[in-house]
Amino acid sequence: MQSNLCKYHYILLRYTQQYMKHDISIIINLIKHNKTIGSSKYFISNNTALLSSINIYDNYKYKGYGNRLMYYAETFLMQNYNINRINTLAWQPSCSTDIVDFYTKNGFITNPNSIIQTYDDSVTQFDLFHMHKILGIDNSSETM
Ligand SMILES: CC(C)(COP(=O)(O)OP(=O)(O)OC[C@H]1O[C@@H](n2cnc3c(N)ncnc32)[C@H](O)[C@@H]1OP(=O)(O)O)[C@@H](O)C(=O)NCCC(=O)NCCS
Predict the structure, then answer these.
(1) In this structure, is residue 31 part of a structural domain?
(2) For residue 140, with 0-12 CB atoms within 10 Å meaning exposed, 13-18 middle and 19 or more buried, which class applies?
(3) Could you tell me which residues come within 8 angstroms of residue 7 by beta carbon, excluding any fewer than 6 positions away?
(4) C-alpha 49: how far from its chain's center?
(5) What does pTM read for this prediction?
(6) What are the tens digits of pLDDT across the range 44-64?
(7) Same domain membership, residue 121 and residue 73
(8) How far is the CA of 57 from the centre of ligand 1 (A)?
(9) Ligand 1 pocket mutation, candidates 10, 102, 131, criterion most atoms within 8 A of CB
(10) Rounded CA gap, 61 and 110, in Å?
């Protein structure tokens, strides 16, 4: 299925499939001139989406495409699935602020009172941050 909500030369492709009993999984890709630039995956349950992965391919990083994919996906989810909240778990190498910075710039906040967990894959140690974004409001003033 193709969606036309994006401006410029970008096309959002979405694939939906039933996942478990009530959830739907959706993959939203960012495509420019027939090349896939990045991909994101969401699980939908009621009015909430869980962003399970977002990835911009190496040649296209740091050019604003991550911001665009996030914006288009949020618009799409609000308009088509009435989503008002996105949850995610940000995996960030310890001693780095990269990923949390990216999500913060896109309006996410770290869940207050959540414990920062760690994961070690035997190569890198990651800090895991539970973050969320309420759609349709200015999250910079959110305190919950
Ligand atoms: C995280 C990721 C999706 C960002 O995509 P991107 O296209 O490189 O990001 P953008 O160019 O749109 O940058 C968006 C903003 O985040 C900031 N940002 C992006 N990557 C950053 C980094 N490594 N360190 C610090 N800030 C970063 C940019 O400065 C930019 O800020 P601005 O809007 O004020 O200019 C991409 O780097 C990626 O695919 N990473 C590997 C996969 C990953 O870690 N996904 C998250 C799993 S939790």
Answers:
(1) yes
(2) exposed
(3) none
(4) 9
(5) 0.84
(6) 988 999 999 999 999 999 999
(7) no
(8) 11
(9) 102
(10) 23
